[in-house]
Amino acid sequence: MVNVVVADDELPAVEELAFLLGKDSRIGTIHRASSGAEALRALEQHPVDALFLDIHMPALSGLDIARVISRFARPPAVVFVTADEDRALEAFDLRAVDYLLKPVRVERLAESVRRISELMDGPPAAPEVITVDQGGVSRMIRRDEVRYVQAQGDYARLHTVAASYLIRIPLNDLERQWARSGFLRTHRSYLVAMDQVRKVRISAGRASLFVGDAELPVSRRHLPDVREKLEATRLRPGH
């Protein structure tokens, strides 16, 4: 079970996030804090595995708290929860596990809890971070946030839960670089994170994969590789 602190200077935001976390069976005790000082006191008084921190709080901000606990021998995981899209670089510099934008989506929150649980089981290798340019602003996207990649000429479009991002890397190059990270070429135009596939359909000789709300085609050429991967993960095609 993951014991957490939820810290936000706006009480409704604390209660909403605590409510959503309470619906996740992986979450244990939830401590509420309406300031950075209260969050630090909760750390002193209780065993805490992770903090969900608003960035903008009076006196001690979420970033300030993350800097403080980074000096701990065994710091708890940190997830920033904010309406501010422009502090992601600072967040990842402080080794944040995740960066959630308000209003928090249940699916993204569950992904944050999954990452925390993995850290508690044993820290994995640091995920690759890709720099993308969006409207002249550079953003950091973790590779494990990418569900699938779509070819667009000499570019590739990375699709995440929250948005999509265009990068100047051909799909063939990403296929080689990301093969060991669970990405499989399923079509000349698609590279898919196979652990994100929730359903498979094979009908009338045509195959497709469902990733989130998207239905992605599988070409005849790539179908044998897809079948082999699905057999290995025991995800059975539906007809």
UniProtKB/TrEMBL annotation:
Residues 3-117 form the Response regulatory domain. The keyword Phosphoprotein applies. Keywords: Phosphoprotein. It holds the Pfam family LytTR. Residues 130-232 form the HTH LytTR-type domain. The keyword Phosphoprotein applies. InterPro entries: CheY-like_superfamily, LytR-like, LytTR_DNA-bd_dom, Sig_transdc_resp-reg_receiver. It comes from the Bacteria. This is Response regulator transcription factor. It comes from Arthrobacter echini. The lineage of its organism: Bacteria, Bacillati, Actinomycetota, Actinomycetes, Micrococcales.
